[in-house]
Each structure stands twice: as structure tokens, then as C-alpha cells.
Amino acid sequence: MKKKIAIYAGTFDPVTYGHLNILKRATTMFDEIIMAVSADNYKQTVFTGEERVKLIREAIGDNFTNVRVDMFSGLLIHYVEQQHACAIIRGLRAISDFEYEMQMASINSHLDRRVETIFLMTDNDHSFISSSLIKKVALLGGDVDEFVPPNVAACLRKKYEKRRGNE
Ligand code: COA
Is-catalytic flag, 136? Predict the structure, then answer.
């Protein structure tokens, strides 16, 4: 039987416990999940694509046998087709996410009708987290251990200590 592959794509700058919660739940629904890090710098990222991939790989460790971490650039739907995936996974945190996500799902569906976008509701503990918010807290010297895996927290501390040192 054909393997059911889904792509969980995002910027992941950096990956948070919210993302990892979505990933964990998606692993039970598909044979394989590819966590695909967008390499294109639409957003001014703090971490390079390679750093973001490394942080995710370290954070998930050996926890999943059916997760692969990769990087992509260009149109997401082209990457989905290239990987022979049947679905795109997205996390929905609040109503405010809905409009943007609806647009993305619609354009992707128009580009390839065979690919479904599956939305998972972010659990209550993580619904207020965003990567930008966490970076802001870290920049201002706050503790982010509750929101991101230890390797990410350590990297954020290092990154911002260096920046503060250069100012
Ligand atoms: N828990 C915590 N935070 C979450 C979350 C969750 N479950 N789900 C989303 N977020 C946050 C992210 O941290 C991020 O926060 P930030 O904006 O503060 O950085 C925000 O929600 C959304 O980011 P993310 O889920 O990473 O998506 P994105 O919008 O950055 O990236 C791509 C979306 C990369 C999938 C999309 O831009 C894309 O497909 N790009 C390729 C080009 C393309 O095909 N475009 C579509 C057709 S034009």
C-alpha cells in the first residue's frame, strides 16, 4: 500500500513546544511526517535554515521513527508533490490565524487539488505561543524554558547574549 506522507511546513524560527505538540499528534495520523523548514527568507529570521533544521533534529532526538526534517524553498505545493505527500499539516492557534490559513489552504488546493490541508488545533497550553513572542522575551533577557526545548532555549540565550555584547 502507498505510504501516506504529510508535510508539516513552517519557518520554525525557532521551533517551539507548540510546533512539537502538533508534530506529535500528526505522527499518529500518517505513515511519515516531513517537517519542512522554509529556507526562503520571507521573514527576517534569527536562525539560518540550517540552524533551524539542526534545532528541530536535536529537539526531537529519537522520539519518532516516522519523522524526517528537511528544508525546502520555492512553492510549498511543489515540494509536497516532489515528496509524493498527500497532505499539508498546519496548526491553528486562534481565530486570528484562520484567515491567513484559509487563504494558504485555498491557494494550495487550487495549485494541486489532490493535496489536502489538515488543521490541528493547538492545545490550550500552547495557543498563545509564537516564535516572534519567544524571541522578544529572550531578547529582553526573559526565561523561555517553558515554551521551547532546552537546546532552543540555550541557543536563543547565546544568540541574544552575543547581540547584547555587540551593542
Ligand atoms: N504553536 C506555536 N506557534 C505556532 C504554532 C503552534 N502550534 N503554529 C504556528 N505557530 C506560529 C509560528 O511560531 C509563527 O510565529 P511567528 O510569525 O511569530 O514566527 C506563526 O505561527 C506562523 O508561522 P509558521 O507556522 O512557521 O508558518 P509561516 O507562516 O512562517 O510559514 C510557510 C508558512 C513556510 C508554510 C508558507 O509561507 C509557505 O508555504 N511558503 C512557501 C511559498 C508558498 O508556497 N506560499 C503559498 C502560495 S503563494
Answer: no
Determine the distance separating the centroid of ligand 1 and the alpha carbon of 11, expressed in angstroms: 5
Q: Which atom of ligand 1 is nearest to the CA of 43?
A: 30
pTM of the predicted model as reported, rounded to 2 decimal places: 0.93
| Predicted confidence (pLDDT) per residue in 56-103, tens digit | 999 999 999 999 999 999 999 999 999 999 999 999 988 888 999 999
Verify whether residue 43 is a known catalytic residue.
yes
Asked about 78 being catalytic, the answer comes back as no
Question: Do residues 56 and 149 make contact, with C-beta atoms less than 8 angstroms apart?
Answer: no
Q: Is 91 in the pocket of ligand 1 (CB under 6 A)?
A: yes
CA of 12 to the centre of ligand 1 (A): 7
